[in-house]
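Throughout our pipeline, every protein is held as a single compact record rather than as scattered files. This encoding replaces a full spatial description with a residue-level series of whole-number codes. The remainder of this section carries one protein's record, kept here as part of the documentation.
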Amino acid sequence: MSALAALNEVVTRALLRQVSVPGLDRPAALITLDNGLDHTKPNTFGPAGLASLDEAISAALAADPAFIAVTGKPYIFCVGADIVGLPTLADRAQALEIGRLGHRVFARLKDSTVPTFAFVNGAAMGGGLELALHCHYRTLSGGAAALALPEVSLGLVPGWGGSQLLPNLIGIPAATQVIIQNPLMQNKMLKPKQAAELGIADVLLEPADFLERSLEWAAGVVRGAVTVTRPEVDKDMWAGVLYFARQTLDQRLHGAVPAAYRALDLLETAKDADFATGTAAEDEALADLIFSEELRSGLYAFDLVQRRAKRPAGAPDKSLARPVTKVGIVGAGLMASQLALLFARRLQVPVVLTDLDQSRVDKGVGYVHTQIEKAVSKGRMDKGTAAKLYGLVSGSVDKSVFADADFVIEAVFEDLDVKKQVWAELEKIVSPEAVLATNTSSLSITAMAAELEHPERVVGFHFFNPVAVLPLLEIVRGERTDDATLATAFAVGKQLKKSSVLVSDAPAFVVNRLLTRFLGTVFAAVDAGTPLDVANSALDPLGLPMRPLALLQLVGPAVAYHVGGTLHAAYPDRFVVSENLRRIAESGQPIVVEDRINDEVAKLLVVGDQPLSGEQVRQNALDALAQEIRLMLDEGVVAEAQDIDLCMILGAGWPFHLGGVTPYLDRTGTAERVTGQRFLPRGVASLRD
């Protein structure tokens, strides 16, 4: 403990009080975790916090209570280890010590002869959920916002018993999902109902009187009036599930995320090993991973998503934002319809779509209504909310319905002349203060607004598809966009629960520019004669969320070809329009069918006689990314390299273990070799030098 005592942490205190519970002849011991801060700064455990919990457990046991329960401050149970302190650990011995300390303290609840309960009143992640798993019984609030074991997404493993306790509680298929699959799916959280159905909690209770009902339920268990039954875990399927999981990881990650494979090893250990052996294996895995580059990148990415995304660099003072009481959407296609549903759900204001004819308008509004009906049928929306949303979304073929709109966004065909015509018509209808937003993926905001009487109220508002899933919103400032417009855009983005990044008016902005350059190098290799399967698998060692051709199919070959043309016009020396991409786009055929390259598409290609190896394709792609990022930073497209990484994580799904992209380019030496300098200072997203 002495070696860890100097580590800085916001100490989470374990506050003990005795509680009289009806029906019991002795008080219960209630331990409340509280770091003294509000719910925006969750409880975490460092060495001092673990020591406080240890002392509270000793005091509770000494009082001979009817039972011991652990709960958290309002809205928060505990979100795990104090990961901010991990990079300050001096050596492997300290890493082992922090793992063993957590195991020793938590095990006191597991091994207690007095019944122990976790009253999970709010967010419980990582070590917080592991603490709950050590208790004999668990109640869960229906209002708990986040439940997860997210360690693998950061480059770690559950290090305080989770890898051993969870599979033996809920079975190996569900445990593999929670410990490995969910973290690798944009760190997917469990909802309270899901956690209860999996068996993580013994009972799900309403949040309004959660503590009172938890105490009442616990008393029933202690008296024998409530019987907790748990299904027997099937161990016959254990090896098969893990074999399949390992194959899936190999196909998807190709060894790029060491933490995922260590987690698999720990889950395998959990089948037959005693608890002490399993937790010792956790200690060793944790100590190894704490000093990995992947963890440093994961912590860097986590900080971007949790902190920088909530305080966008360069955003104007929010007091300048104008209220938005009605939203207009030009267009009623799929993207426009998705936007209509999002705006209505989040802003709770009238949303009206327009299009060229009534059938298109009806189709767009019908899409919104269908999605609302699906949400109700799946229990994701109550009927009262659905009825309200039905009334908020409407359509018209007459643009005069925008006269009283405060915020109008267009989602029409990606053609500059078409968009300029739309704004010219609308400017005669809307008020001078109404914000005019464009969802363009590559065109110039400045050029779009150039002929308007009020170009200062035009702003880029670039969503990513699918709109409801991807959290990034690129907010683009044109040359004449004013602060009030920009502030309103950021305020709306926040209401939409998107993570907004300020971007200057440069062709294709951030994500599309980098992905187009990236895909361009892959197709340049194909054009030169590299077989499609070699080019497609060349980036596998990075562990990207999808291969290049699958990404192309998701974006759409026609869209990719169009954006490529825009960038070629702006930067002809770096963005070459591939003849083979044109052929694929014009064919209209899928390039990938059931995860295999479409033979019919392959027959369309015209290739050279200078094929590249997979390693050459990969290095060319990384070199191109490094060059393009340096140019973007020099041009001031974003404020810092951190914004590039944030965009790639949230808009393109690039993984935490890469830190987005710039940490990987730094640590592989690519950045310095190509551009002469690193993107980030040494020690940021990398081991200290």
In short: The domain at 511-636 is CATH 1.10.1040.50 (N-(1-d-carboxylethyl)-l-norvaline Dehydrogenase; domain 2). The first strand starts at residue 13 and ends at 19. The mean pLDDT is 94. The chain has 28 helices and 19 strands.
